[in-house]
Write a structure and sequence with these properties.
- The complex is a heterodimer of chains A (574) and B (194).
- By secondary structure, chain A is mainly α.
- Chain A has 17 helices and four strands.
- In chain A, strands 1-2 form a two-stranded antiparallel ribbon. A two-stranded antiparallel sheet of chain A has the order 3-4.
- Chain B contains six helices and no strands.
- Chain B has a single domain, classed as Cytochrome c oxidase, subunit III, four-helix bundle (Four Helix Bundle (Hemerythrin (Met), subunit A)).
- The chains are: A mainly alpha (574), B mainly alpha (194).
- Chains A and B meet through helix 7, helix 8 and helix 9 of A and helix 1 and helix 5 of B.
Chain lengths: 574, 194
């Protein structure tokens, strides 16, 4: 009723582009906003990298324009460095990668891939975006409150976070972001369960939909626990409760004015109960995209479809039982460490199974090296490095040595940046023709790909070397510790790689905007793909997507079926 | 918004709104689960968790409040039952009673809070007070949300928006209200009786 009502009236500009109820417009809103946040979060880290390469020297070009809370007189000071670190992590994860993978791609392509007219609750969908937007604005505004932005890392460990400035804004912004993801995940779950096209059984569901569905469940169950933790921390700050303040806490020589009795470890448990599933929220949509692109680029059915879908679900369940492997050195009981070490080793099995299935999909294929395929192929070894370097962190004996060093930073940046983000970029190139009816330029896309891959490795690989040499994370000035001086030259290499990586994004940004208006026009199914999003016009029709809701007759990846005239056989054709 | 929405055919056969409400409630379970498990962890594990004497807590009043809330759940069920039997008046009457009982719960709570402050139990006095006011306060917010939802349904009911075949929203409001009731049934023993 909703959609038919909207079709019959011409829409106002505000209803069409700003407070839109159409999942495609909302997906694009998410995409543009999250890409801007990614760029912003990345530029924060450039400032930090300058400080790490040349500690104490004035930031070139922009140093004097920075607010005093970050860099007074052009030279960054420690509190400013901490604020940038905390905000970089928070922005990249909660405002960048998750909204891009889930909010943008999930919103735009999940209804298309299941053959639905829209999400189950268009109004809630719109609210979800705007609540996310408010959360983002609050997060940015925290730079300008007295005392500056939050300084306690994206993990906001107590009691430091309770006692340092800027944290209240962080907690308020997080409350908005959590609410937004809750609204989104309800929509995704109900849509997937209820609105699939006729014939689209669970065993015919594209892997991207599987990934989004499991991701939505993770968001649904994990985020409320952080919400609880965030409310408790907020009350510790503003109502002087002492949930996380232990008895007899002394700061700066004076006891704090709290009743005490709380537990600092409790915050870590609440936080990581969210934040470990969050890792898979970052990863699963990316894996779903890689599966789509790989099947298309290899012109073969994906190897082990059921195993991959099963592994997604297994990861989803198990990711709630591994959180304390972030806390091996926190003073937690050793017996608990054994339990979490075991579950951590178990959860690496489905991840490896997925990557193995992807690799086996390549076997015997005549691979078409189109642009999206390059990104999907790069995901495999890059995520491989990220995943394998995680194993020493999952074992307590090795983790004690590596914990809180740059090794950890290298590990998760390989997973999230060269893994997830590369796959998400591939997703942009892959689905761009569907979103805008035009293709992105192949040549500049390849320039973007190769430079990005090289410079990303230039930033993140030396982190492993630094970490093994004992360089601690969150260090404002690495040269104050003598043992860091040996690897200090790698900091210069990483800083220049980071600057070059920023420059390497210019071809992408220009290509993206030029292609929206001037790119080569394409037909509805330019990649000759099989899933349902290619069965509707490019871009899909407002508010109803398909001319007629398709009926599904077969599995999602029927490429090169023996006896068929074409090398692909779409799901909606008998 | 005021007309009954046409319920589209869905794959599971469950209307979107009902499924959405259940999914939402499952995340609410995790929210309260996070709070309640924090309470359990600190109450059993903290070295400094003074528990006030039972007389200070006002158990009789809280028991009355529990009774009020459970009764309101019964009237909520009666409201849904009435409209399913095409009894518009029964729907309106029972919804109104449910809303009144909800306000009654809040009134008793707002009598209890200053009483506790007078006894020296405040949100910052010690961990018990912190958890008591945080959790009952959060529950109170949920009660206010539930009352607002019920008032919205009542206004629509008076306008005659619901019929025997289109009373899904009454059911959704009921689901939420029962959940709020259930949370109190858990909070009451863990704060007052244990």
């Amino acid at each position: 009723m909703q959609t038919e009502h909207l079709e019959s009236h011409p829409e106002t500009f505000i209803r069409k582009w700003i407070f839109s109820l159409d999942h495609k417009t909302i997906g694009l809103q998410y995409m543009f906003t999250s890409l801007i946040f990614l760029l912003f979060g990345f530029s924060l880290v450039l400032l930090m990298r300058w400080q790490l390469a040349y500690p104490g020297s004035a930031l070139p070009l922009i140093g004097y324009y920075l607010p005093d809370s970050i860099a007074a007189g052009g030279v960054m000071h420690p509190a400013g460095y901490n604020a940038l670190g905390a905000m970089h992590g928070t922005i990249m994860i909660f405002l960048g990668v998750v909204p891009l993978g889930v909010g943008a791609f999930g919103n735009y392509f999940l209804p298309l891939q299941i053959g639905a007219k829209d999400m189950a609750f268009p109004r809630i969908n719109m609210t979800s975006y705007w609540v996310y937007f408010i959360g983002g604005v609050l997060m940015l505004a925290s730079f300008f409150v007295p005392g500056g932005a939050a300084q306690s890392g994206w993990t906001s460990y107590v009691p430091l976070s309770i006692l340092s400035p800027g944290q209240t804004m962080w907690l308020l912004a997080m409350t908005f972001l959590i609410t937004s993801s809750l609204l989104g995940s309800i929509n995704f779950i109900v849509t997937t369960l209820n609105l699939r096209a006729p014939g689209l059984t669970w065993s015919r569901l594209p892997l991207f939909v599987w990934a989004q569905f499991v991701t939505a469940l993770l968001l649904l169950f994990a985020f409320p626990v952080l919400q609880a933790g965030a409310i408790l921390q907020l009350l510790d700050r503003i109502a002087k409760t002492s949930f996380f303040i232990p008895s007899g806490l002394i700061v700066g020589g004076a006891p704090v004015e709290y009743a005490g009795g709380g537990s600092a470890l409790l915050w870590q448990h609440l936080f990581w109960f969210l934040a470990h599933p969050e890792v898979y929220v970052l990863l699963l949509p990316a894996m779903g995209i890689v599966a789509e692109i790989l099947a298309n680029g290899t012109r073969k059915p994906i190897f082990g479809y059921k195993e991959i879908a099963g592994s997604f679900c297994f990861i989803g369940v198990l990711s709630f039982m591994v959180w304390a492997h972030h806390m091996f050195v926190s003073g937690m009981k050793t017996s608990l460490s054994y339990l979490f070490m075991t579950t951590t080793m178990i959860i690496s099995v489905p991840s490896v199974a997925i990557i193995t299935c992807f690799l086996l999909s390549l076997k015997g294929a005549s691979i078409q090296f189109k642009l999206p395929m390059l990104f999907a192929l790069a995901f495999l070894p890059m995520f491989g490095i990220g995943g394998l370097t995680g194993l020493p962190l999952g074992f307590t004996p090795t983790d004690v040595y590596l914990h809180d060093t740059y090794y950890v930073i290298g590990h998760f940046h390989y997973v999230v940046v060269t893994g997830s983000l590369i796959a998400l970029m591939g997703g942009i190139y892959y689905w761009f023709p569907k979103m805008f009816g035009r293709k992105m330029n192949e040549f500049w896309g390849k320039i973007h790909f190769w430079t990005t891959i090289v410079f990303m490795n230039g930033i993140f690989f030396p982190m492993f070397i630094q970490g093994l040499a004992g360089v601690q994370r969150r260090l404002y000035d690495p040269t104050v510790q003598a043992h860091n001086l040996v690897v200090q030259p790698t900091n210069v290499l990483m800083t220049y790689s980071a600057i070059l990586l920023m420059i390497a994004q210019i071809p992408f940004i220009v290509n993206f905007f030029v292609s929206i208006f001037k790119g080569e026009k394409t037909e509805d199914n330019p990649w000759q793909a099989t899933t349902l999003e290619w069965a509707c016009p490019s871009p899909p029709l407002p508010h109803k997507n398909f001319e007629k809701i398709p009926t599904v007759y077969k599995g999602p990846y029927e490429y090169n079926v023996p006896g068929e005239a074409k090398d692909f056989s779409p799901q909606h054709l008998p | 918004m005021n007309q009954p929405e046409t319920i589209e055919e869905t794959v599971t056969g469950i209307p979107n709104g009902k499924l959405g409400m259940w999914v939402f409630l499952s995340s609410e379970v995790m929210l309260f689960g996070g709070f309640i498990s924090s309470y359990v962890v600190l109450r059993t594990g903290s070295g400094f968790f003074p528990i006030p004497a039972k007389e200070l807590l006002g158990i009789p009043l809280a028991t009355l409040n529990t009774f009020v809330l459970i009764t309101s759940s019964v009237t909520m069920v009666l409201a849904l039952d009435a409209i399913q039997k095409a009894n518009q008046k029964g729907l309106i009457r029972n919804l109104a009673i449910t809303i009144l009982l909800g306000f009654c719960f809040l009134a008793i709570k707002s009598y209890e809070y200053p009483h506790k402050w007078h006894e020296g139990i405040t949100i910052s006095s010690n961990l018990f007070g912190s958890f008591y006011f945080t959790l009952t306060g959060l529950h109170g917010l949920h009660v206010i949300g539930g009352i607002a939802f019920n008032i919205y349904i009542l206004v629509n009911a008076i306008k005659g928006c619901y019929t025997q075949d289109h009373c899904e929203r009454v059911e959704y409001a009921g689901l939420y209200w029962h959940f709020v009731d259930l949370v109190w049934v858990i909070l009451f023993p863990i704060f007052y009786l244990l």
